[in-house]
């Protein structure tokens, strides 16, 4: 019994020794592993004093690991980061958080080293964790930030330099007087743009033009109606007087003084020419009435703002007003107008403003063909005439069931692609200074596209001609 007990006790003792040896070996390997890590491994007590530091502490910060034991971690921290550690310490002890924080440490040489702290509460009220050197990353971030700031500064400098270069080029290209004039014009234009937009310019222009045309039509209409209304009575009175003279000639054939006076005034010719004179006056008065009617139709001031109208009447009224410009001169031949009107329904629209669009487009077409006439005449040899025939074609057509299209086509100078891109811009014009405001096509575009919900396009080929296409809905709803 005693021998068995001793044998068992010896076996138990051997097992304990082996377990102690294995634990010692494991602890040795663990310490060896910890000592060889590149990251700093540490432990500290509740006060934040180091109780364990591996060799990486010396390699990273230059201090001896053994000499730093029992010293507080915040002794090695940058002054601005100590508050961060002191706030984390009680939270770690209460097991509330796992800390991950970048902190600045002082190297033994006084150099600043950035270490990333990763720590948590351990057993027996200790704190264990690691410190990883992130100085290279922080330096790279700082360098990147500095490079980005430098790049932004350089970009700003390049913008300033580019602006200065453009200003210098403009100064070199223009004379001082021209630059002064352009600056004055630009100042005036900017003031106008601040006070009103192109739409208000259009409204004012339309109102002024409509009132002018309507006023002229009204003033002409009254005396013309008076003359036209009295011509029939005058013709009747003249016929009656001629009949009375005839009776005097029958009953008193030879009164000497009357006979002499009748020969002086050539009564036979007078009686023959008076009917012709009256006919001519009637034709003239009727022509004036037609012109007045065209003026009133163009202005449309006596009608509702939106009303179903005959589009062809508006075009014809515009052509009537522009009739004088269609006549030939020494520098250009008569401009031929070719109308290709389709059978269109009444179109609900802003009649007066739409007539202004016709006026702008047809006036531009007239300018284009006159310029082409002058160019062709200058290109012709001496003692020969140009064979160029200035022509403007106006074609209308229905589009599907809800729209109509108006084509205004000329064989004038045409435009380059660059010019076509800008023709609808406010204040853009190719005409000489004082000859155009640059608002006509811009206003026309706004009127067709914005107010009528339509389309206004320009198709042009340089030295061949231009076509403006207007497409608007038949029914306009607002």
From TrEMBL:
The keyword Kinase applies. It comes from the Bacteria. Residues 215-476 form the Histidine kinase domain. Its EC number is 2.7.13.3. It is an enzyme of class 2 (transferase). The keyword Electron transport does not apply. This is histidine kinase.
């Amino acid at each position: 019994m005693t021998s068995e007990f001793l044998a068992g006790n010896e076996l138990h003792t051997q097992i304990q020794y082996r377990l102690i040896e294995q634990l010692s070996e494991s602890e040795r390997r663990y310490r060896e592993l910890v000592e060889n890590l590149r990251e700093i491994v540490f432990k500290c007590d509740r006060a934040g004093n180091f109780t364990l530091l591996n060799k990486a502490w010396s390699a990273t910060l230059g201090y001896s690991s053994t000499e730093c034991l029992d010293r507080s971690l915040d002794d090695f921290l940058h002054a601005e980061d100590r508050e961060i550690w002191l706030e984390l310490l009680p939270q770690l002890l209460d097991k509330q958080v796992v800390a991950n924080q970048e902190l600045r440490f002082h190297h033994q040489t006084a150099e600043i080293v950035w270490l990333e702290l990763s720590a948590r509460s351990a057993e027996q009220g200790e704190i264990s964790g690691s410190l990883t050197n992130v100085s290279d990353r922080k330096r790279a971030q700082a360098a990147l930030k500095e490079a980005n700031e430098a790049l932004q500064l350089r970009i700003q400098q390049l913008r300033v330099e580019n602006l200065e270069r453009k200003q210098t080029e403009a100064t070199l290209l223009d004379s001082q007087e021209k630059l002064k004039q352009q600056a004055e014009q630009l100042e005036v234009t900017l003031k106008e743009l601040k006070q009103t937009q192109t739409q208000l310019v259009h409204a004012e222009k339309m109102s002024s033009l409509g009132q002018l045309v309507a006023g002229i039509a009204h003033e002409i209409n009254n005396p013309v109606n008076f003359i036209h209304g009295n011509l029939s009575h005058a013709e009747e009175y003249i016929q009656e007087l001629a009949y009375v003279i005839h009776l005097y000639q029958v009953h008193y054939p030879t009164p000497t003084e009357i006979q002499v006076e009748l020969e002086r005034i050539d009564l036979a010719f007078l009686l023959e020419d008076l009917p012709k004179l009256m006919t001519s006056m009637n034709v003239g008065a009727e022509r004036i009435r037609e012109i007045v009617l065209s003026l009133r139709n163009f202005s449309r001031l006596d009608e509702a703002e939106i009303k179903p109208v005959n589009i062809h009447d508006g075009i014809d009224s515009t052509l009537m007003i522009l009739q004088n410009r269609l006549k030939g001169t020494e520098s250009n031949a008569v401009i031929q107008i070719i109308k290709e009107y389709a059978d269109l329904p009444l179109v609900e629209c802003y009649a007066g403003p739409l007539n202004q669009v016709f006026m702008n487009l047809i006036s531009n077409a007239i300018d284009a063909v006159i310029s082409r006439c002058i160019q062709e005449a200058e290109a012709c040899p001496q003692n020969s005439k140009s064979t160029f025939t200035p022509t403007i074609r106006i074609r209308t057509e229905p589009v599907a069931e809800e729209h109509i299209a108006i084509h205004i086509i000329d064989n004038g100078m045409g435009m380059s692609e660059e010019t076509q891109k800008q023709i609808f811009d406010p204040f853009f014009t190719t005409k000489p200074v004082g000859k155009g405001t640059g608002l006509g096509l811009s206003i026309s575009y706004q009127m067709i596209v914005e107010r009528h919900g339509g389309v206004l396009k320009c198709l042009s080929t340089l030295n061949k001609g231009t076509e403006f296409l207007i497409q608007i809905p038949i029914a306009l709803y607002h």
